[in-house]
Amino acid sequence: MPKVLIIGNGAREHALAWAIARSPLASEVLCAPGNAGTGRIARNVPVAASDLPGLEQLALAEEVDLTVVGPELPLVLGLADRLRQQGLAVVGPDRLAARLEGSKAFAKQLMAEANVPTAPWQVHERFATARDHILRADRPLVVKADGLAGGKGSVVCSTPEQALAAAEAMLVHGLHGEAGRRVIVEERLSGSELSLIALTDGRTILPWPCCRDYKRLEEGDRGPNTGGMGAISPAPGCAGLTGRLVRTIMQPMLAALGVAGISYRGFLYAGLILTAQGPQVLEFNCRPGDPETQVQLMRLRGDLVPALLAAARGTLAPQLLSWDERPAACVVLAVGGYPGLAAGGERLDALTSWEDRGGVVVFLGATERLQGRLVARGGRVACVTARAESPSEARQLALDVAEQLAWPGARFRRDIGILHAASAPSELACSSGGG
Hints:
Layout: E1 3-8, H1 11-21, E2 28-33, H2 38-41, E3 43-44, H3 52-62, E4 66-69, H4 73-77, H5 79-85, E5 90-91, H6 99-102, H7 104-114, E6 121-124, H8 127-136, E7 141-145, E8 154-156, H9 160-171, E9 183-187, E10 192-200, E11 205-207, E12 212-213, E13 216-218, E14 222-225, E15 230-233, H10 242-259, E16 266-275, E17 278-285, H11 292-298, E18 300-301, H12 305-313, E19 322-323, E20 328-334, H13 349-352, E21 360-364, E22 367-370, E23 373-376, E24 380-387, H14 391-405, E25 431-433
Parallel strand pairs: 1-2, 1-4, 2-3, 4-5
Antiparallel strand pairs: 6-9, 7-8, 7-9, 8-25, 10-11, 10-16, 12-15, 13-14, 15-20, 16-17, 18-19, 20-24, 21-24, 22-23
Helix pairs in contact: 1-11, 7-10, 8-9
């Protein structure tokens, strides 16, 4: 009976804990550091996701049988390496493999070697060369910090002036620090976005249901990018695409990593855009998505734990997971200042008494319990997730509950699950996020 440790404190980790705790195989579930939601179904341990020595000590002291890493930072820092050196089973790639997310330049180069379709791009370490590239370009661009930038490292621009300002902010003025010392300038693509997330042991690839993540803050896909304001699964337009995407994108990337002597075990996430020329990769991530994980796990049939153990041990098989045909949708509730600085402190009285029911589960994110009350810590507070017979029913059910649970000043989108036409370049403000 395995004891499972989940790393992270978001709604994604609450969803993972929810699925794992339902397994008859899991003897106990621990979350480090967890949140108010994970504390209801698991044992929270106050060790930060960035505290690698503390997490290693925790895993050894608790004699955990499996560690599942939610966020990207501990993977990029090398948590999986440390735990595997201690003989512990981990779902999450080693530090070298996690460079797929930790360095956009590395990911772009690997895509070129693997012949994986992506936007034309150049890497710049000096503003002068970036400026020349931007001024020569004859189409809208995206400027991206090479490293991890807390979800604010990609700037989607409509004009050369916006792209120049983004590059100057990173390369000259030090925006994003070390993460922005090198930038990628690439052509901006148009189309509908799609998240393809798979579990892999380095050889077998087990895709999860395709999703669409709604990144922009405001309805109509406007405003700044965020960590995600909602999601729907299956994504509109993805029918019949999964097998092709695994063959043309995920398998070549794993093969290219193998040629470089890098083994990959864990979640592999391809952020895609369906263009007129076919699917193209926007980015790779080395962990499960948030809020995609929430809608995916609402569609899970059976037990998640055997698949996680098999991925960690190198024995993954396609039949280990099956999925409900019914669609799922989620609506994220965030504090008023999100995605900017938000102190939190809002009392979440309706969420305090909420009990999951009727095909709706509320996964908590930036929350804590103070003197018996549920309180927001800032950012994305909750993810209202619903499953129903049709996409429209799922989104309406999630929206209805979100409206019931919203507190004064809460932000959420009422159009999650609606496929918007791609905005014209002149309609898109220069915005940061997704990095």
